Amino acid sequence: MNQGVISSLLLLPIYSKLVSTQRATSTLTPPKPPDSEFIGFPSVTVRNLVKMPEKHIPPKIESFEDLEVHLRGSLNPNKTLALLLDYDGTLAPIADHPDKTIMSIAIETIVNKLAKNPNIFLAIISGRALDDIKNKIGINGITYAGNHGLEIESADNSRHDYVLSEEILENYNRLVKDLQENAVKNNAWVEDKRISLSFHYRAVPVNMKEAIKQEAKRIIEKHGYTANAAHEALEAKPPVVWNKGEASVFLLKQQFGEDWPKKVNVVFVGDDTTDEDAMKKLQGVGKSFRISSDPEIKTFADFRLTSQDLVGDLLSWISNTYENEE
User: Fold this and answer.
1) Closest CA to 181 of 223, 132, 129
2) Where is the signal peptide, in residue numbers (predicted)?
3) Taking the model in full, what pTM does it have?
């Protein structure tokens, strides 16, 4: 890892870089630091000593009837629901190019219905850039988190972005240039999201994929970024302790206060390795669902949805549970 990046991270308080800004003002106001058990380091709280999050092979759900069996009574409709959803592979099927992804009419309809329910706090948490995911969903008055939570826009249009150091940003620019010059070939390409990127190799000939993927991974890590496996892609994330899990907890605390676990039901749905950060944070205090066809997959999620098609069933079940509270 670049020594300059390491030095800047050691000197930089993790949460000093998360700032809240209103669109109408340039004032920067750091939020209250989270409790130790949510910072991402081991803590000595009684709860953590009793039970640390663990990966396991979860119960599978492969029909609406399974939802009824496993979830009956798990959500109190008299209690507000915080519904946190990924987009690619969750609300929309994976496509051969990010620009081609689209929600089905059924899912778009149910998401809009849930967004209007006053007893549901809806947030979309995606690896896409913030403006990109807002355009894909197209619903006003809900919360969006882009770039794996590095960019956040609340329902009132206030921004809460994790501001990266100049050194990390300069390193990011070098990373993009290095990938473009040495790994972008044979139909591989870089999705530049300004502070993180996705290196796509879906269209690379099969016999070349592994070599190109490994070269891209080497370059990403050489510049101090983390390379996470995605669907026929590598997600390059900056070397900071901030991810979908940290962003989820931040949103819940911001919306409901420090004692949010006592106030709200929480449901998280995702399909990728980057979603595991949120599933880990919410284990034991919410219900999370990992979409995967792999019966042996180990996850922090409480349940496994066997296909993306079941997301519509899950959202319908949630809507039915809360329909009397609209």
Assistant:
1) 223
2) 1-21
3) 0.84
Q: Cα(98)–Cα(76) distance, rounded to whole angstroms? A: 36
How many C-beta atoms lie closer than 10 Å to residue 170's C-beta?
13
Which amino acid, one-letter code, is at 77? P
CA 39 vs CA 30, 148, 179: distances in Å: 15, 16, 32
What residue has token string 């991974």? 217
Q: Are residues 154 and 276 in the same domain?
A: yes
Q: Write out the residue range of the structural domain in which residue 122 sits.
A: 60-162+241-324
- The pLDDT of residue 210 is 97
Count of Cβ atoms closer than 10 Å to residue 59 Cβ: 12
Same domain, residue pair 158 and 87: yes
Q: Identify which of 202, 233, 193, 203 has the alpha carbon closest to the alpha carbon of residue 216.
A: 233
Q: Is residue 30 part of a domain?
A: no
Q: Is residue 26 part of a domain?
A: no
Query: What single string gives the DSSP state of each residue in 249-278?
Result: HHHHHHHH-TTHHHH-EEEEEE-SGGGHHH
